[in-house]
Amino acid sequence: MLQPGDKKVLAKLTAAVAVVVVAIAALTTVLVVTDNSDPLPTVSVQAGDDLVRAEPDYWCEIDMTDCRPADPRRVQQLPVNVQRAPAPIGSTVLVSVPHEVADGPWMAIAQYATPRGTYRVFDVEPSESTFTKKFVSRPDAVLLGIQVWSVSTVLQDAPDGMDSLDGSILMRGTYTIDTVPDGFTIPNSTELADRRN
Fold this sequence. Notes:
Number of domains: 2
Helix content: 10-25%
Oligomer: single chain
Strand content: 35-45%
Number of strands: 11
Mean pLDDT: 84
Radius of gyration: 26 Å
Number of helices: 2
Largest sheet: 7 strands, mixed
Structural class: alpha+beta
Distance between the termini: 86 Å
Shape: globular
Order of helices and strands: HEEEEEHEEEEEE
Low-confidence stretches: 9-35
């Protein structure tokens, strides 16, 4: 049986625990409310019966500020975040980009394996024109992978701006998707000429 003094100590202890619980809850609420890091835009990939979401290798604002996880201009090697989405031979792969990518020009680069070697196909999409692209993996051209590049407004090494013969436009973000069919081996790794659509 509790003595009157024990009841006072227990009441104080219960009150102290309640204060700590309220303080932890308040701190958690403040941390959640003040976390202003928006999620990175993802690309949706439908390969066969599977739907996967690919996060970018890196992502920056359109003017190449606020880069996450790293500014590609400041690292020795670009970060790569490969999303696996195996595409069976004979299947179609659909790649849908979010509005953050489609708001500006963007590129899709698909790599294929043939009996003669491998080649890449470059597709450039103007702003707000295309949100979803279709890629087919055929026996004579097996889809190995897809990269999506989102264009920034920043030129690098271009002393005369857009009129420069030198320089390049930086990519604000890139996505890497591995679509090699399960168990497939490349029959010939000779690099063939790139193609443009």
